[in-house]
Amino acid sequence: MTGPILNSIGSDAATSTITQVIKQIAVDQKVDSAPLLAIARCESQYRQYDQNGDVLRGKHNARDVGIFQINERFHLEQSQKLGFDIYTAEGNIRYAIWLSEKEGIGHWSASKPCWGKVVSQIAIR
Questions:
Q1: Structure pTM?
Q2: Nearest to residue 22, comparing CAs of 50, 4, 3, 48?
Q3: Which among 83, 57, 53 is positioned nearest to 70, based on CA atoms?
Q4: How many C-beta atoms surround the C-beta of residue 18 within 10 A?
């Protein structure tokens, strides 16, 4: 699930596909997709690739990559050991879900002003 299928930058179809993939993987892993969807929206607007088709890199830190802006410095080696390719949409999503389950959502604290209310409302349910 990488490359052209998930490469239409900003298109409704690409966003829909990414959100569907996040939801499906979350169901498979038996986790709530709502916080993940909120974080992905805030981190990348659900984009894995930039307008040139290259993996999306962070505005403030070029080592943050993809949908969940996974930081290469801190997570590349671990993601590879687990068999996740953070440079693909599916691998980025799967590693983010693994990371959130293992260590919580604190890794995305920089974007918390964007997703924090959504996630706290989910926790109240």
A1: 0.85
A2: 48
A3: 57
A4: 24
48: Cβ–Cβ under 8 A, 6 or more apart, which residues? Answer: 2, 6, 7, 18, 55, 56, 66, 67, 88, 89, 92
In whole angstroms, how large is the CA radius of gyration of the chain? 13
In the prediction, which pLDDT does 16 show?
A: 82
**Tens of pLDDT along 76-119?**
999 999 999 999 999 999 999 999 999 999 999 999 999 988 77
The string of DSSP codes covering 27-91 is HHHT--HHHHHHHHHHHHTT-SB-TTSSBPB-SS-TTEETTTTEEHHHHHHHHHHTT--TTSHHH
Angle ∠(71,75,78) on CA atoms, nearest 5: 165
65 touches 47 (CB < 8 A): no
**How many residues are recorded in the chain?**
125
